[in-house]
Amino acid sequence: RRYCMNCGLSFCAEHLQKAHAITSQSTKVHPVCDPCYASLEEDLLRARVAQRVERIDQFLHGALMPYTQKVEDTYSDKALRVARGAIIAANALPLPYAGAKVKYTIKGLDLCRRYGIYALGGLMLQEDVFESIQTLIAVTGEIEGLRFVDVTVGLYYLMAYRRGQRGAVPTLEEDEHAKAGNLPSNDVMDEITWFAPFAFHIPYAEAPTDVQRLARHREFTLVDYCKPDVDKRKPTCYLLASKEKQLAIMTIRGTDSVADVVTDLQAKPQQIDFTWANSFSAHSGILNATLWVHQEMKDPLIKLHKAGYRIVTTGHSLGGGVAALLAFFLRREIPTVHAFAFAPPACTSIGLAIDCQDCVTSIVMHDDIVPRVSGGSIQQLIDEIKAMDAIWRGHASEDLGAFWQRLYTLWAPKFRESEADPLDRAKDRNSTPSPGPLLDPGLETINDPTASTASSLDIDCTPSPAHNSGATPDPSCTPGPCSPQSGTIPGLHHAPALGSDAHSVEANLSSVTSLLDHPPALPLDGTQLYPPGRILHIYFAQGVLKAAFVKQNFPGLCRIIPTNSIIREHRGSTYWEALQNLKAARGAAQRPPKWQSYRDSATCPCCWASFTWNATSNSEAQQNRSKRNCRACGRVVCEDCSSRKMP
Fold this sequence. Notes:
Layout: E1 2-3, E2 10-11, E3 18-21, E4 29-32, H1 34-60, H2 75-91, H3 96-115, H4 120-124, H5 127-140, H6 148-168, H7 172-180, H8 186-200, H9 208-217, E5 221-226, E6 237-242, E7 247-252, H10 258-264, E8 269-272, E9 280-283, H11 284-306, E10 310-316, H12 318-330, E11 338-342, H13 350-355, E12 360-365, H14 375-389, H15 393-408, H16 422-430, H17 502-517, E13 534-541, E14 544-550, H18 572-586, H19 620-626, E15 627-629, E16 636-638
Parallel strand pairs: 7-10, 10-11, 11-12, 12-13
Antiparallel strand pairs: 1-2, 3-4, 5-6, 6-7, 8-9, 13-14, 15-16
Helix pairs in contact: 1-11, 5-6, 6-14, 6-19, 8-18, 11-12
C-alpha cells in the first residue's frame, strides 16, 4: 500500500508507478497516481507556454535577454577529447608506413565496432558501397529463404545493375522527369536555397548559445527553443525571428545517423481524425513528435503571426517530416504558414500529402533513401533481391575467384595492356568466358547460359599471374576457401537452377528484367506513406544537376534505388552543395557535353586499356563500376583516367 504524494490517497504498488515533481521549482520527484501525474504535466505545460509567450513579448518590445551557457567539463567530455586527439595524432604520424598501418587499424576497429564480423567486407569494398549495403539490409530485415550473406552479395550486384542501366542510357533520368515533372521558377529555387542553412546548419549546433551566435550571422534572434534532455522521441527545435525581415522561422533538428532514421521509419501508420479536415494517416513517431512541438510552440507562433510576422517551419530528415506536419496543423490558425522540408521521410498518406501541397514544399535529393522508405517500397526491394538471387551467383563466383587468385600472388600490381590496336584487345576480352550478362536490357544474346546456375559456384582457383605483371605465385600460399577442394563459396547456399536450355534462361532473365525496370504500382491508400506536399526532386541529367516538381506517385520516388550514394545524398552538406550547383547551372552560358553510353566503348579512349585493367575482376559488374563519364567531353573513360577534378 502506497500514498500519492500529491493528493494523499492510497494506492497499490501497481497503480503508483509514476513519479513527478510536486512543484515547478522542485527537481526532486515523488511517487504520484496517474490522475495527479496528468494534472501536474498539464500545469507544467501551461507554465512553459506562458514563459514562451512572455519571451515573445520581450522580443517584440526589444527587452529580450540572450541565452547564456554554464560550462561543465565532465569525465565523458575529457574522454572524447582524448579519443579525438589520438585519432588526429595517428593520422599525422611522420612515418608513412607506420601511419598507414595505424590509420587502417583504427578504421578496421571502427568498422568492426559498428558492423561486427561482416565489417571485413567493408575493407574489400569501397566504404560508401559497404555502408549503403548495410543500410539497405537494415531496411529489408530478414528475408525468408535468403541468408545475410546472400542478401549482401545480391544487393552489391543489384547496385551494379542499376549503375550499368543508367550508364547505358545517359538520358534515362531526364526523359523520366520530362514526362512527369514541372520545372521550378528561379524565384522558387532562390527561396529554397535561402532557407536551406536554417535546416542543415543552425539546428545542429551543440548548445543554444551556438545557435544564437549562428542566427546573429543571418540577422536573426534566438527567441526560444525546446531541447528535451531525456526523451529522444521529442525533437529539438529553435524559434528564430528577425524584426527587419518580419520573419519567424521554426527550425527542427533531425536525426544525426541515417541508420537511426531507417530504424525509426519502421513504425506503422497512425490515423489522424480532425474536426476541420478529412481523416488521414501519418507515421506514428513523426506524428507524436509533431503533436508535442505543436502544443509547446503553437501559442508563441500565433502571437508572432498576429504581430505581422511571416511564419516558416523547416527541418532536415526527421526534422523535415515534423516541420511539414507542423505547418499542416498550424494552417487553420496561421493561413500563410509554409514548410520547407529537406529530405523528409515518407510520413503521410496520399490524401494528406496532396492536401498540404499549398503549405509544404519537400525537397528530395536524387537517390536519397529516407524519402523512399515505406512498406510498399521495402517489399519491392525484397522482390528485386529475390529476383536477382538466381542471376548474380555466376558473377560472384567470377569475382571471388579472381580475388583469391590475386591474393595468391600477394596482390601483385597490374598494368595496362600493351597491345596497340584497341579493336583487337576488345575482341580478346569479349572471347573470355563470362557467366552471362548482368541483366543488361541492351544485350540480345546470352553467353554461357548455364554459368549462372547453382553448379557455377564451383571455381577453379589455380593461380595465374596478373596480366603483364610478371609476378610469381608464392608457393607458401595455400588455396583459398573457394578452392576446388571446397567446391563452393563459403556462406552462399545453392539457388534453384534457372534451367538447362537457353530458352528457359532467356525467359527467366526477361521476367527479372521486367520486374526491375517496371515494378508494380504502389497502392494509393492509407497503408502506403509518401513525402508530404509539393515534391521538388533533384536529379542528374548527363552529369548536370536539374530539378523538377513531381507527384507523389512518380516512379523514381516510389522505389528504393540501390546505389552507393543513398547515404551520402541524405546528408545536409550534399543537399546544400546540390542547391549551389543548381544555381550555377541555371546561369551557365555553356551547355554540357552529351554523354557517351557505356555500351558504345570497349576500351578507355585515354589509355587504350580495358576499363578494368587495374581491377581484380573483369566481370560485368566490375566493368559497370570502373566506367566513368568525363564531365568535360562526355566520353566513357576508366577510373584511373578520371581521377582528377576541375571546376
